[in-house]
């Protein structure tokens, strides 16, 4: 299967992360898939942002859950960009998406959008939270899901199977060839993050990963010439 390059929060190395500008740039640069992160606003909107609070990536302060969507729209998310909601990203780009549930409470809201907008063939659902993936599976039995992990051992394969995930998205600093081979034998695809240098790319290709999540467009270009 083709090695995938996945744009991390769009292409956050060159554009404000998790903004429409970043997602459109990722598609323009030819990323195979675009990854984004989801939280719920105070009034239940599927807000695209990585952190649980707005401090790092906007000119505001405080938890996302303390803001209504209208209040979040007043914040600058970088270079004049506004915080988008998931539905806006779906409309702004045509590329396949990876939607990472950061707040478990967002699982049901995401399931409703995926069903209502007929997006199950276009969107993979990711999470660090096993319970979020289990809920997605119960609500949407045919959804494609992936377990994300930063600190893990071989047990991550059993965790993925327990929630019926079809893919692992793993921190490349801890991935081993043994883990990749066992995951592949268990019918799990393996994506590595974050792949931001030629050496990172050589590592993930050497480990026979199925794809790389990157902040930079040039990794997409380099991936075509590595094997």
Write a structural description.
With 227 residues, the protein is of the alpha/beta class. The protein contains nine helices and nine strands. It has an eight-stranded parallel barrel, surrounded by seven helices. Helix 4 packs parallel to helix 5. The longest helix is centred in the middle third of the chain and has 11 residues, at 106-116. It starts with a strand and ends with a helix.
CATH superfamily: Phosphatidylinositol (PI) phosphodiesterase
Q: In angstroms, what is the radius of gyration?
A: 17 Å
| Proportion of beta-strand residues | 15-25%
The helix count comes to: 9
| CATH class (first level) name | Alpha Beta
Named at the architecture level, the CATH assignment is: Alpha-Beta Barrel
CATH topology: TIM Barrel
Structural class: alpha/beta
Measure the end-to-end span: 13 Å
> Quick one: overall form?
globular
Order of helices and strands: EHEEHHEHEHEHEHEHEH
Arithmetic mean of pLDDT:
97
The number of domains is 1
How much helix, percentage-wise, in residues?
25-40%
Biggest sheet strand line-up: 1-2-4-5-6-7-8-9
Number of strands: 9
Pfam family, one: GDPD
Protein name: Glycerophosphoryl diester phosphodiesterase
Organism: Streptomyces melanosporofaciens
GO molecular function: phosphoric diester hydrolase activity
